[in-house]
Specification:
It contains 4 helices and 8 strands; from the N terminus they run H-E-E-E-E-E-E-E-E-H-H-H. With about 210 residues, it is α+β, with helices and mostly antiparallel strands. Strand 4 and strand 5 form a beta hairpin.
Length: about 210
């Protein structure tokens, strides 16, 4: 007698649907987790109100961020140290000594020049191009915002190429010197960020950060 196998389609379909859904969601979650963990918080970020860009650099395993661009130049007039109230906000450290505490999370301090206060803070990546910064006062009264990664091209922030005043009869070594000067980027490099906030001993310049 032939053996017959009977499948109840009414029971089988929901099982297959649930399995497929779980597999798809698991793959999506894994892809998001992989993308976030492989993303790098260093680089240049546009703040939420779009009035400044913060350059974040890895300085010996610690993340520091300085103001790399601002819509309107200003000075740190609310700084609690009177000696620092005339310093320009451009180039000023705002993310202070952020250290990794877990996967995709760095903790340290953030300086707010609008009121001269320093807060405990953390940063994490929502995705490769979105940085979430969270700041708290005494462990509560927390607030946060999202920063957007700025993709700087080879021409952004650079001086235009200059046309030689004389025909090509000028000395050959003069032209490369002009091209090299014109190719200097305006945005500070990682080494510039680290040298701005760290001394030769590798310790932060405390008077310049608070």
């Amino acid at each position: 007698m032939p053996i017959r196998t009977h499948f109840d389609s009414g029971k089988l379909c929901p099982i297959l649907t649930a399995t497929l859904f779980c597999t798809v969601m698991s793959n999506v979650s894994l892809a998001q987790s992989t993308a976030t963990s492989s993303a790098d918080p260093t680089g240049e970020w546009l703040v939420a109100n779009r009035v400044a860009r913060i350059k974040i650099a890895d300085c010996g395993g610690h993340l520091w961020g300085v103001v790399a661009w601002e819509a309107q130049p200003g000075v740190d007039k609310k700084n609690p140290d009177p000696n620092l109230r005339d310093r320009p906000t451009l180039g000023m450290p705002v993310l202070l000594d952020m250290t990794p505490t877990k996967s995709n999370k760095w903790e340290g301090q953030v300086y707010n020049s609008q009121n001269g206060h320093t807060y405990s803070a953390s940063i994490s990546l929502s995705d490769a191009n979105t940085l979430r910064i969270q700041g708290c006062v005494f462990g509560f009264l927390c607030g946060g915002e999202n920063w957007t990664r700025v993709e700087t091209s080879a021409t952004v922030g650079r001086a235009p190429a200059q046309t030689p005043a004389k025909p090509p009869s000028a000395p050959a070594k003069t032209a490369p010197a002009k091209k090299t000067a014109a190719a200097q980027p305006a945005t500070p490099a990682s080494d510039d960020v680290c040298s701005r906030v760290l001394g030769a001993s590798g310790l932060s310049h405390e008077r310049g950060l608070k």
